[in-house]
C-alpha cells in the first residue's frame, strides 16, 4: 500500500523541521561564541615561576632565548616583551615573547645573568642565540 503525501502534510513537515534546525543552529552559534579560539593562561596563576624570554624572529619563530630567571627582564628601549598567553606555557616557568632589537634583547639576557646569585639559579640559567 502506498501512502500519498499531500501538500498539507509536507508543509507540516517543513514547519517541524524548521524550528529544530533553528534550535540546532542557535546552539552551535552559542557554543562558538562562548568558546575562546585559543587557550589563554592567566599570568597571575604562574607569577611565582621563573621567567623564560623568547625573542621573535619576525616570521613566527624565535632567534634567541634566555631562561630561567627569577628576576624579570628590565624595560629595554627598543624591545617590547609581553606575557605569551596564546602559546603553551610549560610547567615550572612563565614564558614571555619579546620583539625588537635582538642585540639589546641579548644584552638584557646577559645583564640578567649578572644578577643571579643563587647557585641553583645559575645552574638552570641558559642563553641561546646571543
Care to describe what's here?
- Keywords: Signal.
- With 130 residues, the chain is α+β, with helices and mostly antiparallel strands.
- The protein folds into two domains: 1-35; 43-128, no CATH class.
- Helix content is 37%, strand content 22%.
- It has three helices and five strands, in the order H-E-E-E-E-H-H-E.
- The chain has helices spanning 7-34, 102-115, 119-124; strands at 51-56, 62-69, 79-83, 94-100, 126-128.
- The protein has a five-stranded mixed beta sheet.
- A hairpin with a 5-residue loop joins strand 1 and strand 2.
- It is globular.
Show the helix and strand layout.
Blueprint: H1 7-34, E1 51-56, E2 62-69, E3 79-83, E4 94-100, H2 102-115, H3 119-124, E5 126-128
Parallel strand pairs: 1-4
Antiparallel strand pairs: 1-2, 2-5, 3-4
Keywords: Signal
Signal peptide: 1-39
Biggest sheet: strands side by side, in what order? 3-4-1-2-5
Structural class: alpha+beta
Strand content: 15-25%
The tally of beta strands, per DSSP, is 5
Number of domains: 2
Task: List SSEs in N-to-C order.
Answer: HEEEEHHE
How many DSSP H or I helices?
3
CA(first)-CA(last) distance: 84 Å
Mean pLDDT reading: 75
Level of helix content? 25-40%
Shape: globular
Give the uncertain stretches in residue-range form: 26-38
Work out the radius of gyration.
27 Å
Q: Main β-sheet: number of strands, strand sense, barrel status?
A: 5 strands, mixed
Keywords: Signal
Signal peptide: 1-39
Amino acid at each position: 500500500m502506498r501512502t500519498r503525501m499531500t501538500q498539507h502534510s509536507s508543509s507540516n513537515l517543513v514547519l517541524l523541521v524548521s524550528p529544530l534546525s533553528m534550535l540546532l543552529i542557535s546552539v552551535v552559534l552559542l557554543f562558538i561564541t562562548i568558546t575562546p579560539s585559543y587557550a589563554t593562561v592567566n599570568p597571575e596563576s604562574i607569577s611565582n615561576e621563573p621567567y623564560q624570554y623568547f625573542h621573535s624572529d619576525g616570521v613566527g619563530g624565535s632567534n634567541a632565548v634566555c631562561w630561567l630567571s627569577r628576576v624579570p627582564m628590565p624595560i629595554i628601549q627598543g624591545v617590547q616583551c609581553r606575557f605569551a598567553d596564546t602559546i603553551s606555557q610549560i610547567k615550572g616557568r612563565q614564558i614571555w615573547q619579546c620583539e625588537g632589537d635582538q642585540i639589546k634583547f641579548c644584552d638584557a639576557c646577559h645583564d640578567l645573568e649578572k644578577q643571579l646569585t643563587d647557585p641553583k639559579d645559575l645552574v638552570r640559567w641558559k642563553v641561546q642565540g646571543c
